[in-house]
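Q: I'm building a small set of examples for a reading group on sequence design. Run inverse folding on the following structure and report the sequence directly after it, with nothing in between.
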């Protein structure tokens, strides 16, 4: 009875997702013949495959095994005020998004927050005068990947950029590139770092027209200063 019910559930969910047996097999890492055996009640999936199978079919393991759809909260927009901006917010277990009601003449919200924690939401985009999110772009931007006049993130680009990898007129980061660059590896007109490359450079390894380094460091340039 259990084998028959599970096979019918897999068949129904596969059809709802618009997947062929071969496509489902590739998602789970098995052959289409194995999927066919499940759906014709000849065999059951290995227990170690259930989490991946459930994910591929867009359900939980409990839903897959019981064929009872779990009740989920339907995230409904609600009004909220953040940083002085009123707007609509949607919250779920997977992502959070807030968009301010007030917008610029070009339709850009003054504040947009969009953060996702799941793989399919990792590129959650935030676009606004102030943008906060996985992928943020704005006058002031904060995120994993951020672009803006003032930019803070793991990877950031802007006039003032701070991050692990930072590119900007003024940049601070592990890898920093810009007019003024400060980082473990820094390249710019003025650069400070463990490895510094620039017109004026200061670091353990320093390369530049004016190269400054410590007494036990290495400097290469037209004018070398040892401290």
């Amino acid at each position: 009875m259990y084998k028959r019910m599970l096979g019918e559930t897999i068949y129904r969910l596969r059809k709802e997702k618009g997947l062929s047996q071969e496509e489902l097999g590739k998602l789970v890492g098995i052959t289409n013949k194995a999927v066919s055996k499940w759906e014709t009640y000849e065999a059951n999936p290995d227990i170690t495959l259930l989490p991946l199978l459930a994910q591929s079919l867009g359900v939980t393991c409990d839903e897959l095994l019981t064929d009872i759809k779990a009740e989920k909260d339907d995230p409904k927009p609600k009004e909220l005020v953040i940083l002085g901006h009123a707007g609509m917010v949607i919250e779920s277990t997977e992502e959070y998004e807030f968009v301010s009601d007030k917008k610029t003449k070009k339709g850009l919200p003054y504040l947009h927050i969009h953060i996702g924690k799941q793989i399919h939401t990792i590129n959650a985009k935030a676009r606004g005068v102030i943008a906060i999110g996985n992928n943020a772009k704005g006058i002031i931007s904060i995120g994993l990947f951020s672009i803006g006049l003032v930019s803070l993130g793991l990877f950031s680009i802007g006039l003032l950029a701070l991050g692990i990898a930072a590119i900007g007129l003024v940049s601070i980061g592990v890898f920093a590139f810009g007019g003024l660059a400060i980082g473990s590896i820094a390249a710019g007109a003025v650069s400070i770092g463990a490895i510094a490359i620039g017109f004026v450079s200061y670091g353990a390894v320093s390369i530049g027209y004016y190269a400054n380094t410590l007494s036990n460091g290495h400097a290469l340039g037209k004018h070398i200063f040892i401290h």
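The chain has a mean pLDDT of 81.
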